[in-house]
Amino acid sequence: MNSILIIVFFPLLAALIAGLTNKAAPSVFAKAVTTAALFISCALSWPIFLGFVAGDLTATVVPVLQWVRSGDLAFDWALRVDTLTAVMLVVITTVSALVHLYSWGYMDEDPDQPRFFAYLSLFTFAMLMLVTADNLVQMFFGWEGVGLASYLLIGFWFRKPSANAAAIKAFVVNRVGDLGFMLGIFGTFLVFGTVSIPEILAAAPAMSGATIGFLGLRMHTMDVLCILLFIGAMGKSAQLGLHTWLPDAMEGPTPVSALIHAATMVTAGVFMVCRLSPMFETAPIALGVVTFIGAATCIFAATVGTTQWDIKRVIAYSTCSQLGYMFFAAGVGAYGAAMFHLFTHAFFKALLFLGAGSVIHAMHHEQDMRYYGGLRKQIPFTFWAMMAGTLAITGVGIYWLHAGFAGFHSKDAILEAAFGRGTEMGNFAFWMGAFAALLTSFYSWRLMFLTFWGKPRWIESEHIQHSVHKTPEEAGADTTGGYHPHESPLTMLVPLGVLSLGAIFAGWFFSHAFLDDAGFWQGSIFYNEALMHQIHAVPLWVKLTATVVMLLGLITAWWAYIKDTSIPAKAAEQLGPVYRLFYNKWYFDELYNVIFVKPAFWLGRQFWKLGDVGIIDRFGPNGVAWVVEKGSVGARRFQSGYLNSYALVMLLGLVAAITWVLF
Amino acid sequence: MEFPILSLMLAVPLVGAIACLFLNAGSARMVALFATLFNLALGVMLWVNYDVGGTQWQFVERAEVFAGFSYALGIDGIALMLIMLSVFLMPICILASWDSITKRVGEYMSAFLLMEVLMLGVFAAQDMFLFYIFFEAGLIPMYLIIGVWGGDKRIYASYKFFLYTLLGSVLMLIAMLWMVNEAGTTDIPTLMQYDFAPGAQTWLWLAFFASFAVKMPMWPVHTWLPDAHVQAPTAGSVILAGVLLKLGGYGFIRFSLPMFPEASAQFAWLVFGLSMVAVIYTSLVALVQEDMKKLIAYSSVAHMAIVTVGLFAFNVQGLEGAMVVMLSHGLVSAALFLCVGVIYDRLHTREIHRYGGLAINMPKYALFFLLFTMASIGLPGTSGFVGEFLSLAGIYEVSTTVTLVCTTGIILGAAYMLYLYRRVVFGTQVNDDAARMTDLNAREWFMLAPIAAAVLWMGVYPESFLAPMRADIAALDARLARAASAGDAHLKLGEPKAQEANYIAPEHSEEGAH
């Protein structure tokens, strides 16, 4: 399985070539090199994945290079390939290859294309290093590497202040999570004496009863470690509290949102929990936290998603919410279901983002859905692709046929697992998840209806006005303003087509392997046989819940955005405070600004002006200088140069000396 | 007797320094560059011939001078690495001063070469008084470099620098005299094995601490550093951040820890306390700086706090981590000051808001600056990560609280460095003169590229740098073992749980279906 070396390092090589030649070569060179590298990686990844599905392959570790030896702390560069990695490999390389291709069209007019493609490939390399990690530190390398690439790509249009702010925010908020991750690694090393993942997982059960001191408190060892590591996962996967960076990350070009902020990087946290699932299974409190945070994020993000106008932000909150599903699935022990949803979500969410990109492309960079409408006929291919994505995310399917779009298989499995788990936390997650599924259906169809149905509202958009050189008044009754949206070029449509296939068939096709086949996982995740049986044994109403709420969401959205379009405004007015809470994202940004950002700058100024200048310098070096200066003024008086005063002093001294000697 | 390579490494820059005094500007530059490059070549030979896993002290030279004082040189792996850092940075400093220094060039180059002699002397000295002479004399060329070739407030800065560092030195000298009297030798390797009475250790430790804390610099005796950096010419800042700040850490690892292990353990709380304050305090101060050099200077204080906690963790990871942070910081902060120097040479201002949008007209510069910014933040794959990670992993074994507080540095560090990067490199071109600046020229490229390569090398394969130090760190760790604290983790094993957290008994599976 040495092809893994090519899979991982070709994207790095391509990134270096593209980045270092930059504008020295025509941009088509960088595009061709990076895209070719990714398609090679992708082509080599699928055989590995299918090999694991067929049961032909077993886990291997390919050593690369020694990294650090320090006392008994040792870790190396190595590429681990097992079932879990193989799943991630195909997700990453497939979406990345398609996004590279898509970007040929989407970024066609950008002057900085080599840089863009270099970043994309660099990201892919880092993500592959993350999922092939055999030890926690290499995972952290990938973790930070994707963070860097994310920072660079969010801020790709670095002339825009909002893009820069979003980039820094993404990096710094992620670092808060990394603080937990790093402490988790340190603690793991302290407890197990190793950072090698297989060794930790093997030793974890023996530690399940141990306690440890942390910040002066005595706690359950495994709970402390797992919660610390999970804080890292929360940052990367934008879970409640550390989610604020993800919606802002939409400042980056849309292909980036599809690759990094939907399909791959943000799922790293879920991957981490699944990778360490035997460890998390020794930590009941930590799993409770995972379940709770996942369920809370799931519902929180869905509420916000229902009120946003920016098409990308709706999908971003949707991503956040779907990640919540994955986490609570992991929390209740259904790691297979979590990974399955990660897998299907990668296809349909990348599809939705790329579809949104195609809409934005057609609508002259307008992202506000209030200025869309009636695009179904104009961009039919994009419409049908988005439709496939929407059917997948809302989980359309028929239970009795056991057939449906991707989300039907994976999301239903998660809800059933939460219910089937039978604990209070499981039930909480089930109800939160079910309600979030209702909202998911609502906001997804709202997006579709606002964009593709109804009358065109294009002329209200400033972007369109710039394009057609008309104001709404001049356009009069023609709300299109005479603008003609064009379907995207083939390079963009092909990825949409391929991902549509994934959104339609991935769930149905791989459902058995991910959910019901312990042999498929080969112990790479904790496979809970009994829980998987429970999933099939839950009552019928539980199995139908997801479908029912999906229909309810669809009907509500249809009613409000097609039947009677005055409803949304009325509802917003009626539900004033709640609407404003959702619309303003529960005021997290405002809150953090007041309790973290502003105080940090204020404290910095105080420490500087008051601490350093006002106290330390004043009483330190300047104080010493002052004492010396004043002291020397005093000393100068004795050195007046007058002979008589010297004679006087000498006389006094002589008298004193004689007195001393005599008495 | 083997070839006296260490003496040669001192002699080459010394001869160059004297020669430069009598040469015109052009020849002085060439002589200085040649001398430093020659020393770099000697350094490489030193490293190649250093026998990893051999005797602790290698390349030993000794000549008795008088009354027990001897000219004794010799290095272990720790000293070797710091010598390598010094000889690596020196030619870069000369290049950085190539065009920007136009007055008294001969004297300037002479001061730098003298600086090199003294720095190498500090790391190579095996006699305590020889060490003291090198250690303190290093002040003089630095004082001159800031005071003569510095910025507008150079006099204030140079005096502040001198006052602070001298204060500690006096106490250290007294302590040294007492030690020599007590132990009857000035030989550092012997003293490193000598057990002073714990009561005496306390005072000796404090006297040395006064000197090393200032050199480090630790909070609250750090305020000389921002002023010195701001006023110093670019190359002065490079050497100050790159090598002089390492003298404090080297002092701790060579004197305080091995000679006074009990006192070091006794005062660990003090070091931890000051370091924790430093990480938070100076990081926040760095966040609000408007002057690029000041910002990087404050970030140095925060990074050095990671060194001190690592050193006083009393375990291998902490000590090795501290050493790697020192080496990494020597490279990265030097490179960051060079980056500031590159644009300062063009626009003659360090004010952050005078720049902006440099990614547009200086893409190569932007790439280098990005790499060094990321290394400063401690991104894995760069040198910054390895040291920080090992250091903090070491301290975790001692105190989770200290680790938590110090690890917040990774958040704050990201905040102030990215905020700096955004204001200088990203954004639109708001200032016309900044927008007209040209990208790196060949000379500047040759300054930054070697450091970039070293930063990545140390990040990806730090074994090259860890291996020579391993035995020495292990020896130190063994010596410290008797005073090491147990740590606050106190792992207690308990009866393992019989089942996984999400265990569901198989026989209940039908029942659960209701």
Automatic annotation (TrEMBL), chain A:
GO molecular-function terms, A-Z: NADH dehydrogenase (ubiquinone) activity; NADH dehydrogenase activity
Could you tell me which residue ranges the NADH:quinone oxidoreductase/Mrp antiporter transmembrane domain spans? 133-430
In which broad location class does this protein mainly occur, judging by the first location in its UniProt entry? membrane
Stretch forming the signal peptide: none
Per the record, its GO cellular-component terms are: endomembrane system; membrane
Its Enzyme Commission number(s) read 7.1.1.2
- In this protein, which residues make up the domain named NADH-Ubiquinone oxidoreductase (complex I) chain 5 N-terminal? 67-117
Q: Name one GO biological process term.
A: electron transport coupled proton transport
Protein name, please? Answer: NADH-ubiquinone oxidoreductase chain 5
This chain's source organism reads Qipengyuania marisflavi
Q: What is the lineage of its organism?
A: Bacteria, Pseudomonadati, Pseudomonadota, Alphaproteobacteria, Sphingomonadales
TrEMBL record, chain B:
Among InterPro entries, the record links this protein to: NADH4_N, NADH_Q_OxRdtase_chainM/4, NADH_UbQ_OxRdtase, ND/Mrp_TM
Top class in the EC scheme? oxidoreductase
Bilayer topology: Multi-pass membrane protein
Q: Which GO terms describe its cellular component?
A: endomembrane system; membrane
Q: Which residues form the NADH:ubiquinone oxidoreductase chain 4 N-terminal domain?
A: 61-120
Q: Does the keyword NAD apply?
A: yes
Q: Which residues form the NADH:quinone oxidoreductase/Mrp antiporter transmembrane domain?
A: 125-410
Per the UniProt record, which residue ranges are transmembrane? 6-24, 31-50, 70-98, 105-123, 129-149, 161-180, 200-218, 230-253, 265-288, 295-316, 322-344, 365-386, 398-421, 442-460
Q: What is its EC number?
A: 1.6.5.11
One biological process term from GO is: ATP synthesis coupled electron transport
Check the record and name the Pfam families matching this protein: Oxidored_q5_N, Proton_antipo_M
- What protein name applies here? NADH-quinone oxidoreductase subunit M
Source organism of this protein record: Qipengyuania marisflavi
